[in-house]
Amino acid sequence: MTDDNTPSRRSILLGGAAALGAAGLGLLPAAPAAAATPWWRRGRFPGDPGNGKIVYGSSMGPQQTVPDFEKGIGTTLGCHRSYFKYVHDEQWRDMRRVALDDINNHRVPVISTKLPGPWQEVADGKHDGWLRNVAAGLGSVPGPVWFCLHHEPRGEQTPAAYRAMYKHAAPILHRFPNIAVTPILNGWIWQGGDDVEAWHIPEADLIGVDDYNPWWTYDTTEPNYRPWKTPERIWGEPIATCRRWGKPLFVAEYGVRYAYREPGRSAAWLTHAYEYALEQGLVALSYFNSGVESPNGTWVLDGERLDTFKNLIHRPESVHMI
Questions:
Q1: Residue 16 sits in the same domain as residue 74
Q2: Which residues pair with 149 in a beta bridge?
Q3: Separation CA 256–CA 72 (nearest Å)
Q4: Distance of CA 78 to the CA centre of its chain
Q5: 32 and 75 in one domain?
Q6: Partner residues linked to 284 by β-bridges
Q7: Each residue of 9-50: pLDDT tens digit?
Q8: pTM of the entire structure?
Q9: Same-domain check for residues 292 and 240
Q10: Both 102 and 243 in a single domain?
């Protein structure tokens, strides 16, 4: 494992020469220069791309491996979203393995996990052993990790318990300077009439939102018909909320289905989403490249949407933080 604080052979030799020179003059050697801070740690949070830049990536469904997808687009993803259900206390090893693979391939790992118990139990410290192992495992990798405890909270428990969980967990996670505490909220919090302020997590380094263009059919008589939505309509309120909270925002899941009667429309939507995100100062976009739990049709990139994704990830504004 590479340690950013490990001095190079050249710096050791130069330091030794300086010490010998100082000794010859009867002086104490100067203190060694501090190791340079990795550029992914120089922003507001670990992996901050900075103004006018965006971390562009995706999750990956079972249809394809990440390396195979990357071969097709000719570069690595800027970020890679992974999902974990709690199975056992040793699962931190799998999280660390995925995060390390991402970092070794120049991706920011976005790790979302469900929990060994209810939010309030985590808040009360009943799962601190698990949490400390996860923090230490992710904290040992040589790059930024955006980490979420229970993405898309809504309805299962109370916002107060969710806030309390993050208030308790954040100091444990923040012991490691590469971990960004990243609650990922459901778009329905804004669309469904919730008290948005009830979900304010002051301890967060950045906020994620999962929300999509929900359109899937031209048949407006379908019981589950959903209209086409612009990025402004989908993300406008989360953007305003995060500005009020003083938190950077990234879209942790989004997607658009193929508008099969209107070639080019879905591709244009993806391009507009990218440009809108840049204009509004979003730090990342992570496409949901999967059909899992998508009863009204897959989001998997193909055809014009895949071509557009490929073009966007090669734009100069799309950066790799590692």
A1: no
A2: 113
A3: 20
A4: 10
A5: no
A6: 55, 250
A7: 333 333 333 333 333 333 333 434 456 788 788 899 999 999
A8: 0.88
A9: yes
A10: yes
